[in-house]
Structure formats: structure tokens, C-alpha cells
Amino acid sequence: MTAKCAAKALPRNKGVRPGPMWVVAATLPLALWGLLLLLPTFDDWVYYTTMYDGDLLADGYLLPIDNYWRPFDSALGALLGAHPWLFPSLNHIIVLAAHVASAATLSSVCRRLGMGLGGRSVAVLFFFFSPAMLGTVLGIDSPNQACSQLFALLALRAYLAMPPSEWRPWPAAACGLLVFVATLFKENGLAWALIPPVVAYAFGRCGTRGLARGLAVGALVCAAYAAARLALTPEWATVKDDYTSLGAAKLVRNACMFAAFTLLPADYVSIVHAPSRNLALAAATVLASLPMLFMALKAVARTGGPRLWVSLALCMAMAASPHLLTIYTTMHPYASLSIAAIMAGEAMGRAARCGMARRGAVVAAFALYMGAAVVTDAHHWLASYRSGLIGRRMADEIVAQTGGARPRRVFLITVDDGYKRYSSFCVVPTDAFGWGLAVTHRTGMAWPKEISNVSIPRSEAGRIPSMARKAVADGFDAVWLAEDSGAKVLYTKRQ
User: Fold this and answer.
1) Judging by DSSP bridges, how do beta strands 409-416 and 478-483 pair with one another?
2) What is the C-alpha to C-alpha distance for residues 94 and 33, in angstroms, rounded to an integer?
């Protein structure tokens, strides 16, 4: 940092002025209203955080299972199973509360790192409104990711409680404990065992000796988690191939998605989903984001030095690494979004303080970026809302056609019409139907209790009558058909 920059940076924490959390608070009623309108689709129906009426202990869901050890998700599923009317509203409330709490914690972290009001505002609003959060905040099955990020940020804040250039064991121990909790929400939280000391080092709050101590504590946390997981994992647990098969092409694809989803608030629904394609809108969101990206990159190139930016880039890579090395989807940019927000806040703050652009130009560039983000957020919300309505309408069609019957065992024939989906925003209609589980939800888990689903391509639709007759002969109480964007009852056993 130049002397001129340093001189301007000195008074930036003085005074009490309205901060970015006022903006967050002002949007909360609208955000909560919008989220509560979203209905389950696709994975929302089958993940741990849906309604579960089994025995957590007997079924082993509090222990590591296959790729996961997420006891909080399992406990939430059991709560929803006991009170089905809470699903999915409780999921949305948990996710939004965690997202808001993460924004507040991020604001505190930025203040601790010495950012002024302008930098903190950019960081917090970038984090809260960036389209990189959509896969998590709009998701019904994502309390794990939202809460993991919250406890990871709390761990970083605990670590930064150490005075600069001093080592104190209690903040480090609190950081380790919070990272362990973050990891029990979702496994990518473990990467944050190593991130806090690197962030402290990036901002000059510790030297290489303090960095080494912090990394050693982080390594102990990783070892403790690994030991606990190995000791508790049942012998029958397996790992899906999707999490172990990584080629060069997949790694490059994941890295490109990581960069695009994190930095560019483009309206990807208008690009990726053919029925919703609107290239003019997509181009407008891209162009609106460019001034801020240019200013931020200019600040990175001219101020701060490699210690700051390389360290933060490394932190971003560490936070994203569990997904970059396995599966990367629209949900996963959230894992590293807070580090990206810190970088954005610091870069734009330096652009204003160091005379690379007038403050009015910095504000205008950030406003354009936020405008693109809000437009993209709104379009993705609308796509998610419409997808959920399709699943509910299909469930209502089945309930209406079933009459007073309450079939216990159902055979569902799903016709695959080759619809293209875009993540959890624009889903295949039959996936919105949740393989029949939308009916179970609509009836408050009263019926059906068992659904056997068979999917066939449209070219084999001529087999449907014979498949239905065989299902009746096999003792199923009802046969349902899901095709196109509708559902109908082919047979119901009258009771």
C-alpha cells in the first residue's frame, strides 16, 4: 500500500454510521415471503432434510453413512417427519436465518480486518445478494451448506479475536471447535480449519510463525475429525463413484463453473435453459457487472501486494476444494462466497481510497453490479417458484382422481420426455413431482406409504397398459402415470 493509501485508510473506522446490515434488514420481509412460496422439487424430496418417520438411532442416520456424516440434517428430517406441516417452511427459515447471520458475522470479520464502511458494505452486500448464493438460499435441502458457512465464519471471527502479532490458545481452540461443528453440518467445513490463519496472515495480523501455529492447530482439527469419522463409520458404508472419479476435463469444468458462478452475476437461466432463453437479458447482466470487475482487478494489480491477494485466493481455493475435486454445481459456490466477498470489499475499498477511481464511480460500478445480481436473483427465484408449482399441481391431480381411497402401495410409471433441466431452478416436471413423494407431502404423510417408480422413455410408452396390469397383479393398491407436466391415476383399488 502506498503512503497516500495508508494515510486515507487511517480514519475509516471512525464514527458510527448506518452499515450494510440495514440494507439486509430492509429486504428481509420480501426475502422471507419469497422463500416461503418455494415448494420442493427434485433432490428436496429424497435428501435427509425431508420428512423422515424412521428411527434415527436404529437406522444409523446419526452416524457416517456413505459419503456423508451430517447428524444435524438427520435430526431435522426426524423433526419434519414428526411434524410434516413444517416442511418446507422450516427449511427456508433455517437457511435464511443462517444466511443473514453469516452476513452479520462477515461484517464483524471485515471490521476486525480493518475495512472501512465502504469496504464492509461491498463485502456484505456482495455476499448477501450475489447469485452465487442462489443454489443454497433458494434450496430446501441446503440448511447444511448455509449453517456450515455460518459456523465457518464464526470460527474465523473467533480466530481474529487474537490481537495482531500475538498468539493466544483460547481463540484458536474456539476456532477449532466451531470448525468441527461446521463440518458436522457439511463436510466442506473442514477446509476452514486451515483458512483463518491464512486470512490473518494475508492482512498482516500474524507473521510466518503465527501462521505455522495456526496451521498446526488446523491440522489437529482435521486429524480429530478423520479419527472420529473412521471410528464411527459402519463397515457397510460405501462411497459413490461420483465423488472419486475426477479427470482433467472434469476438473477444468469445475474450475470454470467456480469462477463464473462466483464472480459473474450473469442470468444463467437465460443462457442455459432453452425454454427460458433470453440472450439480451443475459448480455445486459454481464455488461452491468464489468465496471466493478475491472475496478477490482485494477486494485488487485496495483495495491496490496502478493501476500494479501495470493493468500486470499488460496483461501478461496481451499474453501471450494472439496467440491472442485468432486462434484461442483450451482449450490457449491456458497462454500467460498464469503472469502470472495472479503476480496471484493478490500479491492473496491482500495480502488476508492487509492485514487484509482472517484468514489462516485466506485459506487456507480457497484450499484450496476448489484443491479445485475438482483435481476438474476429474481429470475432464478421465478424459475424455482414455477417448478415447485408444477409438482404441487401434479400432486393435486392425483389426490383429486383418487377420490376417497387411501392407497398404501403405489406403482408409478414415469415417462421420460427428454426435458432439459437447469440445476434445481428449472427442473423436469416429473422430477418436481418428486417420484410421487409430492402426493405424500400433500396428504400430510397419510398416504401412500410405499412408492415403486419405473421410468421409461417416450418411445416405450406403448408398454404402459401391460405394466399397469402387471402392477395390479403384483398387489399394488394404485397405479399412477406421470408424463409431460401432468399426472393421472390408471388404477385405484377401492376400499
Assistant:
1) parallel
2) 14
